[in-house]
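We modelled the chain as a single entity of 346 amino acids. Its sequence is:
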Amino acid sequence: MPSRHPITITLIITISKGTMMTRTNHTIARKLAALGAAALLLSSTACSAHGNASANTDTDTMRVAYLSTANYLTTLKNEQFAQDELAPATVEFTGPYNPADARTAVQSGNADATSTGTGSFINLIAQDQPWVAFAIEYYDGDSQGIVAAPDSGVETLEDLYGKTIAIDSKGATGDYIVHQAFANAGLDASQVTEVEMSPSNFSAAFSSGQVDAIATFDQNLASAMATPGAKLLVNAKEYGNLNVSIHIVSQSFADEHPDLVKAMYRALVKESDKAQEHPEIITDAYREFGASDEIVDQVAKFDVPEILPIDADGLDMLEQQAQQYVDFGFIDALPDVKSHVMDCTK
């Protein structure tokens, strides 16, 4: 679940598999992606269905609207190799944004790239919005879940029947968490009342008893889990999560500057590789955003994400989640996912 300006890189944050990848397969896929990325240096062809134009790297800038969450498009703002990969073009970061404002920055022409959740991306392209995804930020799902509020009396998912769950918005990550968790448990998600609210209000609503539970992710999940008396009911690792983070650009930018999109993909792979050895890249970003020590300690226990390409496996994952979105009633029909993605390993 960002915008870009000159000499500033703006990143948007914010992210599974029906046929779930194993951790080993993820590592292999990541290494193959890195090898594919090297091949990009020798190729000026477009990624997937996009990129018939080449970038004028003498003058171009890629503007990134980054999110207030520690995805790799956000943490790249601190890495010189992001600039090096795009040189002689430049990258500019602006933010932090919440996901909706980041998308608005791109749509208004003030940025070129951002991040969101794969589910939000599916919603966008189902509405025929001009977005192209170029990298999946995959994690095993332990950083998404449902937490019961203190003194709610809720011990199981079924205990939530007739009660309230806070989510970010209909069709977004929180809504997906509720429907997928309940479906996996053989329960009826329509028996709970979902309350939409800004993630900035989650903590107060949760700790004050305004809602009985919260379905959320990343630092908001960590905050809920760290609340005295709260109980984690389920995390996405347990129910077959398909909703992860994804990095996107405007369709016009993908068509006009495929080389810069490829370069940004390579930079994301480098950041992912670096984080496997130095996960403090993630926790330091949360500290920069003002997270408490308790929240940072919990975030440090979450799976370290990996950047994966949107190759045949990545496309299959997105199409499986799109089918879930139809099944859950979030969208009316399957979108043409293939025309909205770039395989930057080619």
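As a brief sanity check on the tokenised model: The CA atoms of residues 299 and 345 lie 30 Å apart. The longest helix spans residues 258-277.
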